[in-house]
Structure formats: C-alpha cells, structure tokens
Amino acid sequence: MKLGINKRNGTQIHADALIDYRISGDYKQFVLAEENRGSDMSHVRKLIASMQDYGWLDSCPLAVREVGGKFEVRDGQHRLEAARLLGIPVKFVVSPSGQEAIPIADLNKHQKSWSLLDYCKSHANGGNKHYQTLVRFMESEEVNLSTAACLLAQETPRNSTMRNQNFKVRSVPWARKHVKHLKAINAAVPWNVITGKFSRVFVKACLVEGFDPQQLAKRVRKYPAKLQQFATERDLALCLDELYNYRSRSLLPLAHEIKKVAAKNTARRARCTTAKISGL
Question: Which run of H or E residues covers position 88?
Fold first, then answer.
C-alpha cells in the first residue's frame, strides 16, 4: 500500500485514492447518463439561488466517467444545469477505474436530505443570531419550527427564506406574549392547535388592528366546540371570525382583515425579491 503525507496536517493519503478533480467551462463535453433521474427545474432554481450567493462549492463536484470522448454525468445533473444557466465553470471528478460500474441509483440512495430544521440549526451553530434566537425560542417554548418562526418574524417565512439565512427576528417580547395566548387556546380544545397552519392564521389575526388575542382565548374556553379543524387557512380564518364575534356587540371583520394582512406580506416579499434581483 502506497501512502503519501499531507504536509499541512500530517494525515496519510492512500496513493490509489487521489481523485481526478477538474474544472471546465465547456458544457458540450458533458452528457447525461440514460439511467439517471430526469431534471427537476424547481431544484435547479434552488441551486441557482444558492450558487448566486456562494458560487459552486469545491466540495460538491459532479461525478462523471469518460465515455467516447465525453464525460457522462452520473451524479449532479441538477448542478450541471444550474451552472450552464449561470454561465459558470463546472467542477467535476472523473470516476476511477473500478467504480464506473456502480449503479447510479446506488450513488444516491444513501443520501439524506436536509430538513428545514437541519438548515436552521446549522445556521444557528454557524453564529447567525436570528437563527440562534429561533432555535432557543422553539426549545424553551416547546413549539414547532413553523410556529416559532411565524411568531418571531410576525409573518409566514418561506422555506427558501429559512434555508438561505434570510430569516429575521422582529420581536422576541411580542412572540413570547402571543405564544401564551396560543397555548391558552390549545389548552381549551381536545386537538392540537399549535400547528403551522393555525399559527400562521393566528399571527395574521394578531396583526389586525383592534384584535384582542386574550378575547379570542376567552371565547375558545367558553365555546370550545366552535373551534373546528379545517383543511385550509381561509376556512380557519372564517371560523376564528365567527368565534371571535360570537355574541359580541362590536363586530370585527376578522377574516377580511386577515386576508388584507396576508396580501400586505405578499406584496412586501415581492418588493424585496424584485430589489434583490435588480441588485444582481
């Protein structure tokens, strides 16, 4: 067995394990393996967003093999397409002799996709204070990630926002105040209220002028059967509207106002996205 020594850290390197790592801007020399999966453009778009922020990471090259003067892509067809659309060089590793016969499905079957929580904890461990606050709040209040994010951001953050370190905490005191009302509602009904869907609607309601979350909690305690589970946020908002105004002299068009809050959040996100694209 031939061993080399890495002079920088003293680790041993097996001579046969040295990889053939290359970089090329000639996209025409790459062909996709017929047995590989088809490309998912939604995944390609996510990779493009990541590459625009960080470039092509050296640790994530394509896995290819030489076939008839071309490089057949065995793993990384989405990265190849993203690079082509961005016009950046492709980083790839040519499979050594003996590994070319490994089925493509076997190259990918042991990969575990990162969950949204994995991303958030990674960002927190990397020193991002917003994500550190998010993880602490989630653990101390014993709520799920979606609920914690909605309360801290006072809106519904997109998954891409969470993954790309764009999540921002608006107010911890506001979140702690309103999670208490959410828990009070949860204690009054036989089903779990602290879910992503209910939390999203609840946070929008709390942003409506004139809405009192304590009053809603009182209504739920008094009429728990009126708070029903619904498949859509629209139906849930209508349910909260009816319950909040039940036997009340002063009516608040809660469902309508929740819809307005949602529209404002959507418009604001669209402006932020447009500004980011303009700055590229």
Answer: none
* 3-state secondary structure at position 43: helix
Whether this model's pTM surpasses 0.85: no
Q: How many other C-beta atoms lie within 10 A of the C-beta of residue 261?
A: 20
CB 167 within 8 A of CB 155: no
How many other CB atoms are there within 10 angstroms of residue 269's CB atom?
Answer: 15
Mean pLDDT of all residues in 103-113: 58
Tokens of residue 218, six digits = 């009182």
Higher pLDDT, 256 or 32: 256
Sign of CA dihedral 146, 147, 151, 156: positive
Cα of first residue to Cα of last residue in the chain, in angstroms, is: 50
Phi, psi values for residue 111, rounded to 5°: -75, 135
pLDDT bin (cut points 50, 70, 90) of residue 279 is: low
**Helix (DSSP H) and strand (DSSP E) numbers for the chain:** 12, 7
Pick from 236, 235, 231: which is nearest to 216 by CA? 236
Residue 104 to residues 35, 110, 280, Cα–Cα distance (Å): 7, 12, 36
CB neighbours (10 Å) of residue 252? 18
Q: Which long-range contacts (CB under 8 A, 24 or more apart) does 74-77 make?
A: 74/33, 74/36, 74/104, 74/107, 75/104, 75/107, 75/108, 77/32, 77/36, 77/37, 77/39
